[in-house]
Write a structure and sequence with these properties.
By secondary structure, this protein is mostly helical. The chain is built from ten helices and two strands.
Length: 275
């Protein structure tokens, strides 16, 4: 049954552009991710939602008592409303990164799941899009759940804030595609700590808890090169209703990340398994 199906899929793709890297079997990888979620990974996914809520309660309503308002774009807003969009963007980043690094590393080097997948009609682009697609579902669920918390608290002050959800998905897509590309080149579990070395400074210095204007100009320039800085500015601008062309620039940053990440992920998986 399975062999004729694989043959028919290969024949249907024959002669089409990208036939060696893509077979249109992405939904099957998403189905596998959902089955794994139900059986064993649900606690990990849930913990990713709890973390930003704890940050919001501890910083937003802890430090927020000492700093009731903060000025953004000449407008005074509640401190909790300032950090809530940043925590939403960070949550999307963390969910995507953890799915596309640790999860992918073990499948690639220990479980050897990709070896079996690529022995079928699937191509490396199917695997890349499937894994990244599951990270997007995780990022989307985090965004919806977190918005369900902060909207009733009055921390989204503009109707444009509804676009923070698709923006979080775009952010997750960018981080997941680049995360998977980087992971495909890693040889040992210890090398995953390199990812943590980048994530923590980005979280602390990308404007999550205070405006970047507190830094000197040269440091602001460096911080604005980080993807999380663009993610926070995009989500915060939408939640506060500060709509301008800069938001399009932030979104374009992640479109470039997605393109680069997918290119190198597909190229690397092709080199590893399609010899």
């Amino acid at each position: 049954m399975f062999i004729p199906m694989a043959v028919s899929i290969a024949e249907a793709r024959a002669g089409k552009r990208g036939e060696r890297v893509y077979s249109g079997r992405v939904p099957q990888l998403l189905e596998r991710g959902f089955i794994a979620f139900k059986s064993s990974t649900y606690m990990i996914v849930i913990s990713g939602f709890v973390e930003p809520v704890l940050y919001l309660l501890s910083f937003g309503y802890g430090i927020g008592k000492l700093l009731p308002t903060i000025s953004v774009g000449g407008e005074a807003i509640k401190y909790a409303a300032f950090i809530a969009p940043a925590l939403l963007a960070t949550s999307a980043m963390n969910g995507a990164i953890y799915d596309s690094t640790m999860n992918v590393f073990f499948k690639l080097n220990h479980d050897r799941i990709y070896h079996g997948m690529l022995a079928t009609s699937m191509g490396p682009l199917d695997v890349a899009l499937g894994e990244i697609g599951w990270a997007l579902i995780r990022g989307f669920s985090y965004a919806c759940a977190f918005m369900a918390v902060i909207v009733p608290l009055g921390l989204v002050v503009s109707p444009w804030g509804v676009l923070a959800i698709p923006s979080a998905v775009l952010i997750a897509f960018g981080f997941a595609s680049c995360g998977m590309a980087v992971t495909s080149y890693m040889k040992s579990f210890q090398q995953l700590e390199i990812v943590q070395m980048f994530l923590l400074p980005m979280f602390l210095f990308s404007g999550s808890f205070y405006p970047l204007t507190v830094f000197p100009k040269w440091l602001q320039f460096i911080v604005n090169l980080f993807p999380l800085s663009h993610a926070i500015n995009l989500v915060r601008g939408l939640c506060l209703g500060h709509i301008n062309f800069a938001l399009a620039g932030h979104a374009f940053y992640f479109i470039v990340m997605i393109s680069v990440g997918l290119f190198f992920t597909t190229k690397r998986l092709n080199a590893l398994f399609m010899k």
